[in-house]
Amino acid sequence: MSNPFLKQVFNKDKTFRPKRKFEPGTQRFELHKRAQASLNAGLDLRLAVQLPPGEDLHDWVAVHVVDFFNRVNLIYGTVSDGCSEQSCPVMSGGPKYEYRWQDEHKFRKPTALSAPKYMDLLMDWIEVQINNEDLFPTSVGTPFPKNFLQVVKKILSRLFRVFVHVYIHHFDRIAQMGAEAHVNTCYKHFYYFVREFGLIDTKELEPLKEMTARMCH
């Protein structure tokens, strides 16, 4: 990462949201450090995502969901100035895929929105989930809820849509900044993780199927 502009973008605060951090001294923080160490050591990403022996699956998944939220947030933050109501009036991934927003509050029915509006609602929605102690408990010994993996699947499916939109509509911006290798690595890490634990339905992965086949096999 010798590109100074890239360093500034990926190491500073060009995020869409403040980063969610792990409290030092907690089990989750130790797992986060272990996961980061594997990545920094250049370990094969297929191996890096595997559950370490003796660790709890829910803890491992929670650490990665928060990490992926921070990373995807950062990636979208780098292209968000070129993603406007005018350039992206629909949240889509090419002509075949359109994503509609639905939540438990204002948008009870799937609603077509511009990409920036969709992203804003999506990041808010995920932030609420990962900061909810009942869903993502931070105290050691507090059990995860029974529907934890269900919630996680929904979060990761929606985060995947950010990759779809960025790759299909804003990749020229990523390439222009010299960030292609970094974004590709983030994507591969995400892809291997969701495949390892079956956290996204195959049909959700369709829009990037050809690119993924070239990149991850």
TrEMBL record:
<feature type="binding site">
    <location>
        <position position="88"/>
    </location>
    <ligand>
        <name>Zn(2+)</name>
    </ligand>
</feature>
<dbReference type="Pfam" id="PF03637">
    <property type="entry name" value="Mob1_phocein"/>
</dbReference>
<dbReference type="InterPro" id="IPR005301">
    <property type="entry name" value="MOB_kinase_act_fam"/>
</dbReference>
<feature type="binding site">
    <location>
        <position position="170"/>
    </location>
    <ligand>
        <name>Zn(2+)</name>
    </ligand>
</feature>
<protein>
    <submittedName>
        <fullName>MOB kinase activator 3A</fullName>
    </submittedName>
</protein>
<feature type="binding site">
    <location>
        <position position="165"/>
    </location>
    <ligand>
        <name>Zn(2+)</name>
    </ligand>
</feature>
<feature type="binding site">
    <location>
        <position position="83"/>
    </location>
    <ligand>
        <name>Zn(2+)</name>
    </ligand>
</feature>
<keyword id="KW-0479">Metal-binding</keyword>
<keyword id="KW-0862">Zinc</keyword>
<dbReference type="InterPro" id="IPR036703">
    <property type="entry name" value="MOB_kinase_act_sf"/>
</dbReference>
